Amino acid sequence: MSRTLEPGLSLLTAAEIRVVVLPIGPMPKDTFEAYLSAFNAHRHVPLHATRCFHAGGPKSPFPHLALKSGAMHFRFMQADEARRRSRISDLHLHRQPLAVLGLVHCPLLEDLAAGHAEFERAAKQWPEALLSRCCAFEPSPSHLATPGLRALRELMLLPAEHLGAHLEVYMTEFAADMLAVIEDAVLNASVATVKLNTYADSGEFLGSSLAQLEEGLRKLNMNEEELKEKRRWGRLQKAKGDWALLAGSPRDAFEHYKSGMELSRAAGDAIWFGAAVEGLAHARVLEALIAARPAAAAAAVRPALAAAAAARKAAAAAAAEPVAAPAAGGGAAAEAATVGAAAVVTNAEATAAADQPLYTLGSCESGELPGPAAAAAAATASNAAAAPPSQAAATEAATQLPPSTTEPATPATATTSSSSSKPASSSAAAAAAAANLQHAPARLLSLSGLLSGSSGCSSASSASAAVASGWAGSCYSLSGPGAWGVLAAADLEGEVRELLAEARAWYRKKGGALALQIEQQLKLCRFVAGLHGPVAARLEASEAVGLIIESLGALPLQEDRLVALVEAGQLLGLVGCGRKRLLLLWTALEMYRAGGDKGPSEAGAMLALTLKSLQPPEMPRQQ
């Protein structure tokens, strides 16, 4: 099964690495969906975190890689979706799966070695994948005693306890491995492997014999071998631009796309020239998000850092004064004050760790936590070992991330408390400082905070828009109101429109490439709706949908016609035309039914389409 049109494309999906997720062995559907949801929670991985596992080197093909503010983005796909391969994956590399991930539910699988062998067989369905990994969840002691377990290098065991933290570290390592194989692919890329007879070169895709006539005339005026050589080099540069986008380096992608455009123009390779111009638009949008991340993240952690500084001052003042032991029967307040003072003293290592920059992860040995996480973990372990039971429970609770509604104590409160000179007041100050240290800085010292932090400040206007729209808490995401606020502040609409118009003009030179033009219209309308809202984008979206419906008959593949109809309906829902959206979705469903006999996978696709028509449409700033 293959198609040309892809559902759900936007100007940012070119930066997403597709990962096929396979259930290995017996696994209930709800369990598989729960694991998949857990992975999706960590699908945006900051590049600075990967340095603990992949330090890079002087031969990196991405000299402009934004290690402090860039990120890698993953799109997890189930097997049925991944089997619907794109016919133009040679033109757009992000449309092919680049990794395969197997999930094993150990309580229902006794033999891990057999499960790993099953995963290896299943992964061969996607030979284009550069990376394959297998995760075994909830292993028992018998699983850990499996003979030859260490030889299964692609297998990772994940215990049920603290699964979120384990997955965050695992996804960081996974992203580092993915970055390494992408770098190898770029370094080892050769023009000898570049294809010239792809589906994007066929008359079926181009939709006109005029393109073949122009090609013959060009061959008469230029040496054929020279023409082929320039085409190969141009396509190679375009592919390197795609790799750079997937690695999280839009600046490097921009340079490769520009080189590819020059070579493709000289060779008359119109489709690849247009695709490279479209890649420039993708790179510009991604670069705008990256430029705003450092300031947004710094603004998010600034209150917690201020609270940590106040806590350190209070801890120093409390450590300089003797803490009186509570009298017998002194009540819960005295006991709490004593426990709080002890917590401040024993958390000195964690306090010192908060001084380190969030993006400085240091060098890591196998099994060590990066940078401040190691100090925080050591401090927590020593506290739990030396503290009485009541304090140990408090220490364990302090290491958990606080609820999002919990507000950190203000620095003024801690400073005022620490200024008192009475022993009882010192104990109270110590308790307040301990509360500050154990709640607000816990976000920084936890694994989650360390692996999603950032530093520096680059774009004040974009940062203010990001903080105002709440993007700072999840500034590595490619979607949501915060990301759209940043893009609106960057004022990219005019440049994006010009680039897409130029790409469309080159597509038309080669006979049309109708599928690419339809995708481009959908991308642009989604972009405008995200920037300005549904009302401002409604007229343009309605006109685009009208053009798409008129051109359906010219698409050669029925699945492309269905995808175009469904995406047009989704676009109408995005701009507030709910009834028209529903009408188009049901029209697509009737077209699907009229297509002949369907197998199990096609029946599943029909069910998914039916359910989509019953769901509410997307919101423009949630896409």
Automatic annotation (TrEMBL):
<feature type="domain" description="Trs120/TRAPPC9 N-terminal">
    <location>
        <begin position="223"/>
        <end position="287"/>
    </location>
</feature>
<dbReference type="InterPro" id="IPR013935">
    <property type="entry name" value="Trs120_TRAPPC9"/>
</dbReference>
<protein>
    <recommendedName>
        <fullName>Trs120/TRAPPC9 N-terminal domain-containing protein</fullName>
    </recommendedName>
</protein>
<dbReference type="InterPro" id="IPR058563">
    <property type="entry name" value="Trs120_TRAPPC9_N"/>
</dbReference>
<feature type="region of interest" description="Disordered">
    <location>
        <begin position="387"/>
        <end position="423"/>
    </location>
</feature>
<dbReference type="Pfam" id="PF08626">
    <property type="entry name" value="TRAPPC9-Trs120"/>
</dbReference>
<dbReference type="GO" id="GO:0005802">
    <property type="term" value="C:trans-Golgi network"/>
</dbReference>
<feature type="domain" description="Trs120/TRAPPC9 N-terminal">
    <location>
        <begin position="9"/>
        <end position="182"/>
    </location>
</feature>
